[in-house]
Specification:
Blueprint lengths: L2 E6 L11 H12 L3 E6 L5 H15 L3 E5 L5 H8 L8 E5 L1 H5 L2 H4 L5 E3 L4 H13 L9 E3 L38 E2 L18 E2 L2 H15 L3 E3 L9 H13 L7 E7 L5 H9 L2 E9 L3 H6 L6 H13 L3 E6 L8 H14 L5 E2 L12 H10 L23 H5 L6 H28 L1
Length: about 450
């Protein structure tokens, strides 16, 4: 048995529930017979995080410390790595950031760095620590002296233990805020930082998903579950089978759920079936109202298709949330005006707009690779002054705009800021009306 400590370093943008990815890895290690503790430091200050991290290592004395790194918290993770006392544990970095830049954590104090999904790899690392052997045979794993075979995505998602089995205590607060029924996204958006699960779209069987939903309801009393899939509606036969399976399960009567999907991956007939199965809200990825920008970012949709999908969702009785982004390098005042026009049109039929939305160039994306040298933001995540701060209570302020990655001129910057404020105002008015009516 290996003692494993799984750590999520501080994030500038707070999380409202335990991190689902960490719980998946913890459940896999527990199922393999190892002892696991999860240390979620996402919402604490870095000084507090360092103290808690050191205390946990000294009290638990793990042989393996696994740290989840996003681009936003990579620097915080590197600083935590510097504080590991009495270096007896193997320190491994995993998550989105090491997947695209596996060598970087190795130069910041980590012994191992993992590309791709972590459930199988972390179990394999623990087995090496327990029984001996070499790390060189583990797919996707990088060491200071080499790397293992290329990583391949997990095909059979049904074989993974349910993540809530790692919650520790049977309370609602210990459960991650939702589940995933599929991994990967078939889209090719140039701004997307979907590294770990990749482009290969894989899905769990309807029976497996329903079994988890039933367990969540029976064990934790959950009546509402968000689905966090990147593209929930990407494969129509799978979607239909899942909705039918939920409807056929007596123990799920009255369960409601929400999902996320690109605007071009859903049809009106899908929405009617989803609503019958309990879907009460859909978060649509739209990004821009300009056809030229949509082509440039490879979004694969048109404004007309988006409007039709949202109208159909509202007709089916669902709440709608729409996501727009601002500040693409291909975008000027004319293109931004087209986005504004679509937003105004959708404001009449949609409920919420996403907060903020200014483009952040994440490493590994086509936008980062093409523009980081030209605009001077290479490896911005290693400079604390370049990392967007926590948004704070003012939802009309976008910290990413203040970092000005793409050197927007005064006019462009002012127009983007106005649209960010407009979205916040729309959301506040909608929320106020619904509080009064409720």
């Amino acid at each position: 048995m290996v003692r494993a400590l799984l750590v999520l370093p501080p994030l500038p943008q707070p999380m409202n529930a335990p991190y689902l990815g960490q719980q998946y890895v913890a459940a896999a290690l527990l199922s393999a017979g190892h002892e696991v503790r999860c240390l979620d430091l996402a919402n604490v200050r870095e000084t507090v995080a360092r103290t808690r991290f050191v205390e946990e290592i000294r009290s638990f004395r793990p042989a393996l410390v696994g740290m989840t790194l996003f681009t936003y918290n990579a620097l915080a993770g590197y600083r935590l790595a510097e504080t590991v006392p009495e270096r007896g544990a193997v320190l491994i970095a995993g998550g989105p950031h090491p997947t695209v830049l596996p060598e970087e954590p190795l130069s910041h104090g980590f012994d191992l760095s993992l590309s791709g999904e972590g459930e199988h790899a972390l179990v394999a690392v623990a087995e090496v620590l327990e029984d001996g052997g070499s790390f060189d045979d583990i797919p996707g794993l990088h060491t200071r002296t080499g790397q293992g075979p290329p990583y391949s995505a997990i095909d059979n998602l049904d074989e993974l233990p349910f993540p809530h089995s790692a919650a520790g205590t049977a309370t609602r607060d210990a459960v991650a805020g939702g589940i995933v029924t599929s991994r990967g996204c078939p889209a090719r958006c140039t701004f997307c930082a979907n590294y770990v699960t990749g482009r290969a779209y894989r899905w769990r069987s309807p029976e497996n998903v329903v079994a988890e939903l039933v367990t969540l309801r029976r064990t934790f009393g959950l009546d509402h579950v968000p689905f966090w899939d990147d593209a929930f509606t990407a494969r129509r036969p799978r979607l239909e089978a899942l909705c039918d399976a939920i409807l056929a399960e007596p123990d799920l009567g009255g369960l409601t759920w929400t999902c996320i999907t690109p605007g071009n991956m859903v049809l009106p007939r899908d929405l009617e079936r989803m609503r019958r199965a309990g879907c009460v809200a859909i978060n649509f990825g739209i990004e821009s109202g300009d056809k030229g920008v949509l082509r440039a970012i490879r979004k694969g949709q048109t404004p007309e298709r988006v409007v039709a999908a949202i109208e159909a969702a509202k007709a089916a009785g669902m709440m709608t949330i729409v996501n727009f982004m601002f500040g693409f390098p291909e975008e000027g005042p004319e293109e931004l005006a087209n986005t504004r026009a679509l937003m105004m049109q959708l404001a009449l039929i949609t409920d919420f707009f996403n907060n903020f939305g200014v483009l952040v160039p994440f490493p590994g994306t086509a936008i980062y690779d093409r523009y980081h040298a030209e605009y001077g933001f290479s490896r911005w995540w290693l400079d604390r002054e370049r990392i967007p701060d926590a948004p704070g209570p003012d939802l009309g302020r976008d910290p990413a705009l203040e970092k000005n990655f793409f050197n927007y001129g005064p006019r462009m910057k002012a127009e983007i800021a106005e649209l960010v404020r407009w979205k916040a105002s729309h959301n506040a008015v909608w929320a106020s009306r619904n509080v009064k009516s409720g």
